[in-house]
Amino acid sequence: MKQLYEMLCTQYHVYDFEQRQDRLAFVSIPSEQLVSLLTCLRDIYGFSHLALMTCVDWLEESRFQLTYILRNHDGHRELVIKSFIDREHAVADSIHHLWQHARVYQRELHEMFGLSFPGSPGMTEPMILEGWQGPPPMRRDFDTLRYCEDNYSNRDRTHSEPEAHMKATMYPED
Amino acid sequence: MEKDKFDDLEVMDLPTDEESDPGFTEWRKDEKTLLNMGLPEEERDWFCDARPQVHKKSPKIIEDFLNWARAESLWILAFGTGCGAIELRPLLTARYDISRLGMAPRPTPRQANLFMIGGYVSIKTLKRIVRSYEQMQGPKFVVAVCSCAINGGMYWDSYNTVKRIDEYIPVDVYITGCMPRPEAVLAGFDRLKQLIRAGKAEGQNLYAQNFDYYKANQKRIIKDWNMPDYNW
Fold first, then answer.
1. Which residues does chain A have within 8 Å of residue B159's beta carbon, measured at their own beta carbons?
2. Is B159 in contact with A142 (Cβ distance < 8 A)?
3. Chain-centre distance of CA A15, in angstroms?
4. B123: which chain A residues are within 8 Å (Cβ-Cβ)?
């Protein structure tokens, strides 16, 4: 994996190489070069499988981390690409032309994090949250508890210890 | 387990229907007509615009016979809304065998009269639940299984899960547990049969009577209401 990283270094501004396991490594890349790197990895280095595409919200650093897990089935190697985009201007490049199923991930990220992937087909259609009108719920500044309290009503709770309750209801004579 | 508000079917404080337009021009419409405003203009005539009616009771001896028949043929709608639906599978096998209680799973709402809410209900599922419930033929009964359907359970602070299902459709019997064992579900069904025989499982009439209350609750949660107001 170190060898692969050195080869990538000659073409791209990859940084933060981190070898977590024998066959698993993490690298970071500026977002401008992301699609180019993914195309290169898919077509030249044999990372033909996009196993996961997800997002991490770094609220304190005011940026989103896009994470792509690629798998090379011939060499049984996995490479995780991290790319950072600005939190205020959350627009990233779409990769639906590289992997068809990336459009589903991008649709989900649009819904849950409010990211925008221009050109991704069907991105704005609702997927899980039909008719959602609040802010994107997976952003860390979204207050889940307050939203829940505003929208859904509680049932009045009565507490009863199981042991005492069963004794009172089933064996009151003991 | 039993809900004790069936003893007296009182009409609750009904919220006013803000959508009703007083200036009806068509001769057959009045203030009770459902407007189906959520549907596109050309689709509004495709659906019935009448409200559900409260079922009138027969004389007592006939009603008792009918209740006995209803209690002995509960057909479950095979609509697994959460993890609680898993408990239906062991009930169907030889060990528990709910067919000896006259119960069977049915594939469509039209053929079923028992709706088992099996667990957490998200907003997207609630839309389907409401439509399926309204499509079921009366008399129909609802059993809510698992703590999620009762008070939210582990989804108590979830952004997309309703915490109590009985605000949106009437529930006859609750079965607690996370998950309840098949024995508990059987006991719940047995309890439901007792309620039906006593003539106290009046969920359908409750729904028709408090239609505006339930509909207002549903529309408050379901922000994109694109279905008919009552799905006959």
1. 134, 137, 142, 144, 147-148
2. yes
3. 21
4. 129-131
Contact state of B127 with A154 under an 8 Å Cβ cutoff? no
Condensed to tens digits (0 to 9), the pLDDT of residues B67-102 reads 999 999 999 998 888 888 888 889 989 999 988 888
CB proximity B151 to A under 8 Å: yes
Pairwise CA distance, residues A39 & B187, whole Å: 59
| A167 in any annotated domain | no
- The complex scores an ipTM of 0.79
Q: Is B205 helix (H, G, I), strand (E, B) or coil?
A: helix
Residue numbers in B near A155 (CB within 8 A): 150-152, 163-164
A169 part of a folded domain:
no
Q: How many domains does chain B have?
A: 1
pLDDT tens digit string along B157-216?
889 899 888 899 999 999 988 889 999 999 999 999 999 999 888 899 999 999 999 999
Q: Which of A128, A131, A153 sits opposite B224 (nearest CB)?
A: A131
Q: Where residue B18 falls among pLDDT bands split at 50, 70, 90?
A: low
Q: Do A133 and B222 touch (CB under 8 A)?
A: no
pTM for this model (two decimals): 0.82
Query: How many contacts (CB atoms, under 8 Å) link A and B?
Result: 53
**B127 has a chain A CB within 8 A of its CB:** yes
Please state, in angstroms and rounded to a whole number, the distance separating the CA atoms of residues A163 and B8.
33
Contact residues for B165 (Cβ-Cβ < 8 A; gap 6+): B117, B121, B144, B149, B150, B171
Residue with tokens 């009964």: B141
At B200, which CATH number?
3.40.50.12280
Task: Residue A145: give its domain's CATH number.
Answer: 3.30.460.80
